[in-house]
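Kindly inspect this one:
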Amino acid sequence: MAVRRRTVLGAMLAGAGALATTGCIADTAADTGTSPTKDTPPKQQKPQETKPTQPDRITLVATGDVLLHERLWTTAKRDGSSDDWDFAPIIQSVQPLVEAADLAVCHLETPLAPAGGPYRGYPLFQGPPQIAAALKQTGYDVCTTASNHSFDSGGAGVDRTLKTLERAGLRHAGTARTPAEAETPTIVDVRGVKVALLSYTYGFNGMPYPDGDTWRAGTIDVPSIKAMARKAREAGADIVVVSCHWGTEYSSRLNDQQREVAPQLLADSNIDLLLGHHAHVVQPMERIDGKWVAYGLGNLIAAHREPTSPKAEGLLVRFTFQRNGDRWTTAEAGYAPLLMTDALPVRVLDVRRELAKPGLAAARRTRLERAERRTTATVTSLGAAPKML
């Protein structure tokens, strides 16, 4: 992962003062027939530093909702143990694509419970905290957290979730523990390139702000998002990515908010990319004035128990940013269709790589091919032509 790869400063050249301790200056004086005096001190080399240089390109990978239904707990318990649930095998299929990216972004839709629970599913989620370690193990660097379920466990749930992510080594954006944290854009150093992640939601299912603290999470408001993007730029961000929890559940069609807000945000010079979540089905990708929006990435991990429906399908997207002077632009966009199995143990499948395996059962192949066709048709329905990974 890119956040673990840093440009190392070049070695500093030794100064003449260090040489003096070995007698080198005296030897030099004898060779030239001169000697250092008070009026003509010996020249000293200044230490030199090699400044970190940015790469010409970086890649960002993002996936859909992490929605922890009870069926997933059963699988994690089977893959791990009664005392140490393991969610990593569920999403192991996407690990090669996630790990290969310079920056990998997940979307944690639900708050996390204390270790040992109690755990809750729909409608007021409070998921097992072991998911954080699994996301980190899979290769994710940062999770966006603003969603309609952000306040399912109140302010304590927000605090606990962010602390759990940090303990796992994951950065986060979207919800906050203090007003100061809410006003500070999340900026991740990616091989010397500073990438800001901002996260907003359409609402909170009618749940009130905990204790009236409106800073706990941001809603989708164009002026507010633009102001935070500008703040991120002023803080040194080279690239600004905005995550929007929006859309109509279970519909691949865009709603009015998506159609109106996306062009307004991408028209802002401080915003480079939009990532969408919430619909739980794949939605289109679109390029607007040279910038990309992935309106809806479906689910990364969920268990809607409808194995033949689009709810079982998800999307991994990869964007390659290229440096152009002092600005970064999107040079390439790609996608990988995903499919979640229904039978225990639940697994997320990388559709294209799964289809390449020999000896697939006919029913499995048919379902994978349907997911690939349906996902591709949806992704490209607005005329975009990203590359299938």
